[in-house]
Amino acid sequence: MPEPAGDSSLFLLKGGIVVNHDFSAKADVLVHNGIIKEVSTNLSIPNGAKVFDVTDQYILPGGVDLDCHLTVANPEDPVGDTYLSGSQTALLGGTTTIVNTVYTEPDASILSAFDQFTSSAADNVACDYSVCMRLPRFDSSIEEQLARLVKEKGVCLIQLSLGSGNQSNSPYRDGALTDVAFYRALRVCREYGILPIVVASAPAYLVDQLTKDLQSKHPNIGPELLYYNQPERGEVNTIMRAALHAFQSSHVCPILISRIHSPSALQCFLEQRRKCRGLLFGQTTICAIGAPLSAFQTSTYDNSDTTKFTLSKDWTIAASYTYEPPIRPDVNLAEQLLALLVNNDNVTVGSGHRAIRTDVRAAFGLHNSARIPKGVSSLGCRLPVLWNCGVENHGGLSPCAFVRSVSADPARLANLYPQKGRIAVGSDADIVIWSKIDGLTEDGYKNLLSEGVYNVFSGLELRSRPDMVFLRGSLVVADGKLVERQGVLGKYLPLKPFGQFAFNRLEAMDGTLNADRPIVPREPYTGKVAGSEQNQDNEKKESHFFRKEHYDNVPKVALPPGQRQIHTSVKTAQPPGGSSHSFW
């Protein structure tokens, strides 16, 4: 589409269909200086304004992704993209805001990790971004740093990992916390207004042990190792423990359960969400929905086929599906997840993006499958794939439900709404013009995928995509291609604590819990207390354990250790000169 002449900071979108999570209607949208100024029908064209004719095209708020990982590649984190290339694929796919997960070394400072990330990401991220810190541990030092991150840096999302219940001496990988540390972390999250995120994966100690067992029995086991060592029951265990700590404490804390990837995990989440009265929020990934459904569209797919994904006989394909938790070739699960999105059950869709090139997977894990880096490239595919699977292919998803799942609810969980995630007066002009296309071939995916990675959505023909994307009023994507002259426009978005979407019911919940746990009124106890000084006097009392009447006719095995058996005395006569043969 040729660019209209006029003031670049003032433009009018004419004739489109505005879609928010709660309504859709035909309207014009006026934008000035990066802010939406007016949304109405038949708006007049201001002097000097550009006009974009978007007749009968959808005008959507830019996508918000709470689950992605961009960083500088290193031996410990060999990602296949950069801040710039990853964020550019996000824009091409219609995502204008990401929440990037930042990892911290086990003994490092989370403040230092945050500063290192922001300094390396500055002027290198094409879309707007916020931060979710993954805690490497939890102690008094981390608690102090969290307070500063919230107040000074605007970090209000953290990722927690549950480990063994009694792991006190040797911490497991990935910052897995003990039950005590996890409970303390939730109390701090409640106090500071932080929303904790828990990935529904099997506990690290269990994964490590299963890995050792499988490799000892099958030394040449392939990528299927990373499927077998993460059982569904482990995911259920994590969800149940997280819900127990969050809801049964004296002060409840909301939790976002992320990466719901199995039928058991989904069923457990729904059950615990009901028991926790709606304070559990859920998030799946586009891979759990799109990968099985894209495989289903191939003529050879069978839902009972056990040679798909990480169980494929092709090492390259099998390694490309390694993920935590595993991506399962389950069409029924994908349909159940879509049904949840339709029913507005507070489940959102993230990308779960961590791009790993195929050659890097081979370099790390060809001879030791446990070392295969896990992750998929999905940041740019999230919106087009969900639209295809949910809106177009009879998935039951309306455009409004689509916006709620990928934009509005993620923005509300991050406390960015309505600045992000809505087409309304006063909101940022993060706008996606959604258009139908003839169909994207495999070559068409190249703009949506990181270079050198395997496409887990191969076989899925996309029929819609973002035609134009505006970031705070600046046109960054036109005709499905990047507008290079715009440069890098992304900026860091500090988050505010105590987001209303997650925290507004907590005081009422506290009151309800107190009502459910009534204190029973009783008269004071006035009886004796064993061992109490007030019951002791100078009178010598027979020891309880030596009262003869307590031990008459009691078998020896029933006596306290070290005590002899005491029998009732029987008098006999023993006169001088010999024993008597008669009883008195």
Automatic annotation (TrEMBL):
<dbReference type="InterPro" id="IPR050378">
    <property type="entry name" value="Metallo-dep_Hydrolases_sf"/>
</dbReference>
<feature type="compositionally biased region" description="Polar residues">
    <location>
        <begin position="565"/>
        <end position="584"/>
    </location>
</feature>
<dbReference type="InterPro" id="IPR032466">
    <property type="entry name" value="Metal_Hydrolase"/>
</dbReference>
<protein>
    <recommendedName>
        <fullName>dihydropyrimidinase</fullName>
        <ecNumber>3.5.2.2</ecNumber>
    </recommendedName>
</protein>
<dbReference type="GO" id="GO:0006208">
    <property type="term" value="P:pyrimidine nucleobase catabolic process"/>
</dbReference>
<dbReference type="GO" id="GO:0005829">
    <property type="term" value="C:cytosol"/>
</dbReference>
<comment type="similarity">
    <text>Belongs to the metallo-dependent hydrolases superfamily. Hydantoinase/dihydropyrimidinase family.</text>
</comment>
<feature type="compositionally biased region" description="Basic and acidic residues">
    <location>
        <begin position="537"/>
        <end position="553"/>
    </location>
</feature>
<keyword id="KW-0597">Phosphoprotein</keyword>
<feature type="domain" description="Amidohydrolase-related">
    <location>
        <begin position="387"/>
        <end position="475"/>
    </location>
</feature>
<dbReference type="GO" id="GO:0004157">
    <property type="term" value="F:dihydropyrimidinase activity"/>
</dbReference>
<dbReference type="Pfam" id="PF01979">
    <property type="entry name" value="Amidohydro_1"/>
</dbReference>
<dbReference type="InterPro" id="IPR011059">
    <property type="entry name" value="Metal-dep_hydrolase_composite"/>
</dbReference>
<dbReference type="InterPro" id="IPR006680">
    <property type="entry name" value="Amidohydro-rel"/>
</dbReference>
<feature type="region of interest" description="Disordered">
    <location>
        <begin position="515"/>
        <end position="584"/>
    </location>
</feature>
